[in-house]
Amino acid sequence: MNADLFKKVDDYISDLLAPEDAVLTETIESLDREDIPQISVTANQGKLLQVLLMLGSARTVLELGTLGGYSTIWMARALPEDGKVISLEIDENHAKVARQNIEKAGLTHKVEVRVGKALDLLPKMAANGEGPFDMIFIDADKPPYAEYFKLALTLSRPGTLIICDNVIREGKVLDANHPDERVQGVRRFNQLLAETPSVTATILQTVGAKDYDGMAIAVVNQTA
Ligand SMILES: C[S@@+](CC[C@H](N)C(=O)[O-])C[C@H]1O[C@@H](n2cnc3c(N)ncnc32)[C@H](O)[C@@H]1O
Question: Which SUPFAM superfamilies does the UniProt entry name for this protein (predicted)?
């Protein structure tokens, strides 16, 4: 794998089509300052999320896994002024840093970061009648990805876009006996995706500034 070339081409694409402004650069810098891992989506992937949101004229987004708010900012910027991102995050400090970055981006009115375990928060959201969301971005811990997808379907409508990041894991998904629970989690999710007739889905392999991975893209069928 020519990781160096993939990184250079990713930089080339991002410089051309997804340049970061000061807020996005500072969001990435805030992770180092706060000892938070550098596991945000890339700039180019943030732009892909924007393109997909605009394609569907999305107004409402549910995100699982906020980290420092980098993807949240990309997505909130693609929504109309009265649009809303609800982002779920288990770690209090990540949520605090994300809220600061979202405020610096002038997006506080469009974003709500909720602290808690996604597996606890999602059923409550459905029970409270929240949703359906126009887009759901699953980017939290990997072992429960299949459960997250099932819960996401309860917060969806025909036409809802569901995107799940990190579902190829450097190709480790090919190994049915892989010992890493994250690999097994995304393998269960990928299988479930294939066996869910109410969605039309595929997986894009992703290479570039981050490790070789993949993003699942699904749309809930109109007849679902
Ligand atoms: C890959 S990072 C999210 C990156 C972010 N979407 C971005 O691109 O900027 C995953 C995040 O999910 C959070 N997380 C892990 N387990 C979680 C859970 N059970 N419920 C909610 N959030 C969780 C982690 O604390 C971390 O901040």
Answer: S-adenosyl-L-methionine-dependent methyltransferases
CA distance linking residue 175 with residue 182, whole number of Å = 12
Neighbours of 165 (CB within 10 A): 25
Structure tokens that stand for 8 in this block: 């250079």
Question: Counting atoms of ligand 1 from 1, which one is nearest the CA of 117?
Answer: 20
Domains delineated in the chain: 3-220 (3.40.50.150)
Please tell me the residue having the least CA distance from ligand 1 atom 7: 40
Tens of pLDDT, residues 102-158 = 999 999 999 999 999 999 999 999 999 999 999 999 999 999 999 999 999 999 999
Instruction: For residue 136, count CB atoms less than 10 angstroms from its CB and return exposed for 0-12, middle for 13-18, buried for 19 or more.
Output: buried
Residue 69: half-sphere exposure toward Cβ, Cα within 13 Å? 34
pLDDT of residue 224: 57
* Ligand 1 touching residue 36 (CB < 6 A): no
